[in-house]
Amino acid sequence: MEIYVKYESEASKYWDTFYKIHKSKFFKNRNWLLREFPEILPVDKETEEKMGEPLWDLVETDAANCFSKMPEEKNYYEKSSGSSDDQSKREFDRPSLDSEEDRKGPPKTELFPGSDATFRILEVGCGAGNSVFPILNTLQNIPESFLYCCDFASGAVELIKSQSSYRAAQCSAFVHDVCDDSSPYPFPDGILDVVLLVFVLSSIHPDRMQGVVNRLSKLLKPGGMLLFRDYGRYDNTQLRFKKGHCLSENFYVRGDGTRAYFFTKGEVHRMFCKAGLDEKQNLVDRRLQVNRKKQVKMHRVWVQGKFQKPSHWTQNSSKLLFSTPFS
Q1: Which pLDDT does position 2 carry in this prediction?
Q2: Fewer CB within 10 Å, N side or C side of the chain?
Q3: How far apart are CA 311 and CA 105, in angstroms?
């Protein structure tokens, strides 16, 4: 039990060490994000006219092989000693939104970073910026948009701010522990159009996941989207963890001290719907990856979901019946 507490209390230290060692060269940019999650951008006719061509066309080339080339999942565990090779509909009674403010939208506030923007995105667990910079690259022609990004590893945030592509006028990178409810965000609740939660929730202790999702839900404006992608149950990574690396059911520690949980579609559904969000997508993505150099085949499993904060909350919204549970 003492070792479990150690990994929990020192989680930020392990990730900080990771980024100090690997800096920004470990993972490749996630250019596939814009193809898989077009909700990241305020795509409409006016935006497309400003860009000069459809946003979909801009990202199509880089994303053609979207998930078949995801180095964070493919190579991470080959480089972490003592670990392995890496990474629906409504059925849950949901509580009503917490306050009148959730229904009325964000209150009038003082100036804050991005206060003048009309479209705001938050990436949770931004790491060294492998999602940040592909997004910023596209947002540069959409000046009314703003990107927030946070990580509880201060070394990761420092790496992002040190990059020449970082633009403080359109991006705010900050250190933040999403598990700490007492730690405020540098902006008010209810103002975000998009929250991006990609391969982040799995690194959090299962007992704290619901609280994190509940808090992120409050940051969204009505109609805002939470975009999720993470490790799925029985992914090749989970099956290759060696004895002694399992902290609790489906929750493991890697050789470098960082942790990973493996989700089912049903768990994801219950967690986000319990936070008051409507499910728009919830799927299991199974892929066969082949390392031709090593002649190794890997069966990958990921869970991907899109969840929306209701535009109008009614009493009937919390009176949903259970359907057949997901596996």
Answers
A1: 55
A2: N
A3: 10
> Once rounded to an integer, what is the mean pLDDT over residues 184-201?
96
Which residue matches tokens 């814009």? 34
Burial of 248: CB neighbours in 10 Å, binned 0-12, 13-18, 19+: exposed
Q: Which two tokens stand for residue 289?
A: 């990856």
Contacts of residue 101, defined as CB under 8 A and 6 or more positions apart, other chains included, come to 107, 189, 190
pLDDT band, very low/low/confident/very high, at 190 (cuts 50, 70, 90): very high
Of 292, 10, 20, 299, the residue nearest 155 (C-alpha): 20
Asked whether residue 174 carries a pLDDT value surpassing 80, the answer given is: yes
The contacts of residue 321 (CB under 8 Å, 6+ apart) are: none
Which residues touch 255 (CB under 8 Å, ≥6 apart)? Answer: 80, 81, 82, 83
Average pLDDT across the chain, whole number: 77
What are the helix (H) ranges across the chain?
A: 2-9, 11-22, 33-36, 45-51, 55-60, 71-74, 100-104, 132-139, 154-162, 206-219, 236-240, 265-274
Maximum separation of any 2 CA atoms in the chain, in Å: 59
Q: Are the C-beta atoms of residues 218 and 189 closer than 8 Å to each other?
A: yes
140 in Cβ contact with 170 (< 8 Å): yes
DSSP letter for each residue of 293-326? TTTEEEEEEEEEEEEE--SS--GGGG-PPP-SPP
Cβ–Cβ < 8 Å for 165, 133? yes
Band of residue 295 on the pLDDT scale cut at 50, 70, 90: confident
Distance CA 134, CA 214 (A): 27
More confident residue, 291 or 118: 118
Residue 15 scores a pLDDT above 60: no
